[in-house]
Amino acid sequence: MSIKSQADVDGLIAEYDEERPSRALSRRWEHGVRVAGLGIALLVLKQVFWPFREGGQYYLVIFLAVTLPLVFLCYRGRRGGREDPGPVDWALAGVAFLVGAYPLFGGFDAFLDRQGQLTALDVVAGTVLLLVVLEACRRTTGWVLPVVCLVFVAFAYYGGYLPPSWSISHAGVDFGQIINGFYNDATGFYGTPLDVAATYIVLFTIYGSVLNASGAGAFFVDISFSAFRKSRTAPGRTAATAGFLLGTVSGSGTATTVSLGAVTWPMLKKAGYPKESAGGLLAASGIGAILSPPTLGAAAFIIAEYLETSYLQVLIWAILPTLLYYLGIALAVEVDARRFGAAPVEIDAPSPWALLKRGGYHFLSLGVIVVFLALDIPVYSAVVYATGVAAVFALVARRGDVRGWARAMAESLSSGARSALPVVAVCAAAGVITSTITKTGLGQELASALVDVAGFVSSDPAVVLFVTVVLAAVAVSVLGLAVPVTASFIISWVVIGPALVELGVAREETAMFIFYYAVLSEVTPPTALAAVAAAAITGGDVLKTMWRTWKYTLPAFLVPLAFVLTDHGSALLLRSSLVDSLWVFAASAVGVAALAALTGGWLFGPARWPERVLCLLAAVALLHLQPVAVAVGLGLLAVAVAVHVLLPKVFSRGREQDA
């Protein structure tokens, strides 16, 4: 298909993103929602500099009470429903506000004092809030997560009916205490997930919206086109680079894929890329943006909160895996350009230096985030300052048109706040799961069951760890097929995380392992939303595009295994000495190169199955990250190269002798 307008791009994002499409409101309702979104944005900014004296939970109550109603006005109850909100939507919005703000009625302190002893009215209000949270989650992400939440509620209440011999059985929790855990405890609706959404995620969505309004998105695409000019590998390199840069504006893998495909697919097509391979490259480049500093996916903020560390530390952990991810894509691009016989494409663009002189300031706000974090300034303050820098440069780009700039900034603030609505609904619903697991101890029991399953295979600790990690990777990937990345990470952290920690894996490596597999679920067949969106752009076969995407992202699936399976895996997260990190990174890079040769079927020319098998064995040995294993891996790779170079000559001489 061809992308003819921004409306086409927006339509594809709405159709294939993991979040349900929002309403196309009429002008009157759009204006009202825009004002409400602006009010939410100002509330969030106010909390950064002038926080409520009553504390963080007080702010979260207000935040949920004002954002939840907006979900019912911006998202339809069913596909094909009316665009403007109807009576049911307004009724739900009103109820959501009333039960959301209920803890403030009669005094917030008095409500907290009733913890564990809620009144009948408290329980009714909490129950209604549970229902509207689940309905908001259904509208924004689909049925799966709300159903999972209801299963957890049923487990908490009916746990006493389970056979006593089952390890997960428990005495059952009174319904009032269940609601108390959701409504009054710090582990329910107002727990860490919502706290992260209200203090970090919404600020970054606002930042991305303001940065895009300053023209950064167009600049990032232009600089990517300009950097590689005319060569047969330029189209692929441009797509990968533009995907990485656009991710700083989008924050969504599928949205980045669609935006990227709209501008780079014509170039890839002209270069001779098959539809499926081009779609795979677009999807892999788009998803990579979520894995890359300085603006990782939403789950990265939750990692920082769960581990009680700084967001800068999480960014540091992501540096080497990001380099390895894009190294894999770069090598795949080099292979594809040769295997497909890609043609050079003349790119009509100014020189990179001319573009940098004209728009290089767009990188400054990203630098502000990193520098301020390094100065130990809280991340929520750093992103606000970066937003201010982007806003100032937006004024410069408009050549002093203050009125137009003010209108654009107001729209950006509102749009940023509205973009966070699905995440808010997911994070509030995730509180149902975390609270239930806390009250029943289910997480630890499921983690022990996972380890026990691995124990059936072998009693050797190394084998148990390996089997557990493989099962965990599969579980996170499968879970991510059904729920958004943020929810997938939260659920996996409380269920799977304890199993890995119990086996001696550090919490940091465990968190990053789960994070990577939660993100990579977006390119995992059979759903692979980013790949489906890419196929819609290129017109390629959907299933083939999924497998091409998997080929490009294979290093990203295997490298996280090194975090948790090897003694030197922590060095890949820069949690070791510089010397260790350097040799581990070098070994991993060679391993990624071996994987590229395996999946691309190319060394110095087309690779046959003996070389590819040797490359597979070399990659496995290299990613084991033990000195002896690395030496073996290098030897196997050398043998693969020797076979690749010498075997054709041997066959050629044999044919000459026969002749």
Written as H for each helix and E for each strand, in order along the chain, the element string is: HHHHHHHHHHHHHHHHHHHHHHHHHHHHHH
Residues in β-strands, percent = under 5%
| Average pLDDT number | 85
Class of secondary structure makeup: mainly alpha
Q: What radius of gyration results from the CA coordinates?
A: 26 Å
Give the strand tally: 0
What are the segments in which pLDDT stays under 50 over at least 5 consecutive residues? none
Helix content: over 70%
The number of distinct helices, counting runs of at least 4 residues, comes to 30
Distance between the termini: 53 Å
Walk me through the structure.
- By secondary structure, this protein is mostly helical.
- It contains 30 helices and no strands.
- The protein has helices spanning 6-16, 27-49, 56-74, 87-101, 108-113, 120-141, 144-158, 175-183, 192-213, 216-228, 234-250, 253-271, 275-288, 298-306, 311-339, 352-359, 364-374, 379-397, 402-419, 421-440, 442-457, 461-482, 485-495, 497-502, 507-520, 529-538, 542-565, 578-600, 609-622, 627-658.
Keywords:
75% helix; 30 helices; single chain; mainly alpha; 659 residues
Question: How are the SSEs placed, and which strands pair?
Answer:
Blueprint: H1 6-16, H2 27-49, H3 56-74, H4 87-101, H5 108-113, H6 120-141, H7 144-158, H8 175-183, H9 192-213, H10 216-228, H11 234-250, H12 253-271, H13 275-288, H14 298-306, H15 311-339, H16 352-359, H17 364-374, H18 379-397, H19 402-419, H20 421-440, H21 442-457, H22 461-482, H23 485-495, H24 497-502, H25 507-520, H26 529-538, H27 542-565, H28 578-600, H29 609-622, H30 627-658
Helix pairs in contact: 1-12, 1-26, 2-3, 2-9, 2-19, 3-4, 3-20, 4-6, 6-7, 6-8, 6-20, 7-20, 9-14, 9-18, 9-19, 9-20, 10-11, 10-16, 11-12, 11-13, 12-13, 12-26, 13-15, 13-26, 13-27, 14-15, 15-27, 15-28, 17-18, 20-23, 21-22, 22-23, 22-25, 23-25, 25-27, 26-27, 27-28, 28-29, 28-30, 29-30
